[in-house]
Write a structure and sequence with these properties.
Number of strands: 15
Distance between the termini: 13 Å
Order of helices and strands: EHEHEHEHHEEEHHEEEHEEEEE
CATH topology of the largest domain: Tumour Suppressor Smad4
CATH class of the largest domain: Mainly Beta
Shape: globular
Number of domains: 2
Radius of gyration: 19 Å
Length: 303
């Protein structure tokens, strides 16, 4: 990659201040490589998104130092374009980085990896998912949650304590204890129709969400397919017993769990039943119905 313009998005509060330190290191290394660095950081995600949208067409790469929310902002801006994405994981969940097989727990090493990839012009193509609802069109790279998992994510996002994956676990226990099902129609590749009463339907491009819960342990973001994990409606006690199996990915053998693969997935509510708002990459994605379509190689990742 030639020495050009690189956008830098930093969450200085990520990882209890690790984001600020890693961000300064990234800034220094990018400038040392001769790149013009454009600071895209905002006071919140909306401001960062506005900065990025205004600059992205003129950037060779966007480097994100932070967690999943900030990475998702960058994914939505660069997916389907020639602008590459660099990720320095510095959040608490880091599921997007985990799904892209990037190293976790060492922001300094991650900065070195991104710097080397820029210096050597090295990137790899991975799939991204085009998501469409009545409210908006967008992209995601990890998993779309559409049932109790969306409620869990919404509850976890509203809490500031505890920190890290334990927040998601506590939110899951709270929601599963009062579990309810949703009646969904799942349309795979436009012609395979499943009418389900489900605890959740997760549309997965990568393996995990919720800070390492391996909902789709066989998902591969380079195979051009989505893993659609359907968990049948369960009583609260059985749902709570199933939950500990998800983190290690051992739930797929449970009789209530079914996996389908498709290039496109449409989720619709049946019979006027209530449905949670879907979440993609942990962020609200509008409301049902929702259509997800994998776009092979739509995202270039510095690695």
């Amino acid at each position: 990659m030639h020495r050009g313009r690189v956008g830098l998005l930093v969450n200085p509060t990520a990882g209890r201040g690790a984001g600020r330190v890693a961000g300064l290191r990234a800034l220094g290394e990018l400038r040392q490589l001769g790149h013009t660095v454009v600071d895209l950081t905002g006071g919140d995600l909306a401001e960062a998104r506005a900065h990025l949208d205004a600059e992205v067409a003129a950037l060779d790469a966007v480097v994100v130092v932070g967690g999943d929310g900030l990475v998702h902002v960058a994914v939505e801006a660069v997916a389907g374009t020639a602008t590459a994405l660099g990720v320095v994981p510095a959040g608490t969940g880091n599921d997007l980085a985990r799904g892209l097989d990037l190293e976790l727990g060492d922001p300094a090493l991650a900065v070195q990896r991104v710097s080397a990839a820029l210096r050597e012009g090295r990137s790899r193509a991975v799939d991204a998912v085009r998501v469409r609802t009545a409210e908006r069109d967008g992209w995601f790279v990890s998993i779309l949650a559409s049932g109790v998992d969306a409620l869990i994510n919404e509850r976890a996002n509203a809490w500031r304590w505890p920190s890290g994956p334990s927040r998601y676990t506590l939110a899951a226990i709270t929601e599963l204890a009062r579990v309810r099902s949703v009646a969904l129609r799942v349309v795979l590749d436009g012609d395979r129709v499943l009418d389900v009463d489900a605890l959740l339907v997760a549309v997965a491009n990568t393996r995990s969400y919720g800070g390492g819960l391996r909902m789709a342990p066989d998902a591969d973001p380079t195979d051009g397919l989505l893993d659609v994990v359907v968990v049948d409606a369960l009583p609260a006690a059985r749902a709570l017993r199933l939950f500990p199996l998800v983190r290690p990915g051992r739930h797929l053998s449970h009789p209530a769990v079914h996996v389908h693969r498709a290039r496109s997935v449409r989720l619709e509510v049946r019979g006027g039943s209530a449905s949670p708002r879907p979440h993609a990459d942990g962020e609200p994605a509008g409301s049902l119905p929702v259509t997800c379509e994998v776009v092979p190689g739509a995202l270039r990742v510095l690695a």
